[in-house]
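Problem: given the chain below (119 residues), write out its structure.
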Amino acid sequence: MFLSRGTIKYVEAQVYMECDNQIASYYRSLIPRGITLNVPRYAPHITIVRNELLNDVTNWRYYHDQEFEFAYSGNIEHNDTYWWLPVECNVALEIRKSLKLNEWPPWENGFHMTIGNTK
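Solution.
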């Protein structure tokens, strides 16, 4: 695992951590040339909350614009459409817990940073 830092953002019904674009660019460059990988629509980030019903908004925006550390794996994972780096982020777990959500996000690949897609 490698360490980096990101900034927490709250926008509408989402919470995410902005990440260094150079991380995604570097790992995208490692994809074999025969695979056409598109740059994601959004800048590199870690989604923490995405369009989930919130049971408690008391702590909404509590971490906004604060910077935190996260760890990411250099092992690129993918499915038929997306390519990503697995991420471990304690503050992401804290944020979800503070909003009375399950600590683990509902999407299948957990906390991750998307580096590209084949759409």
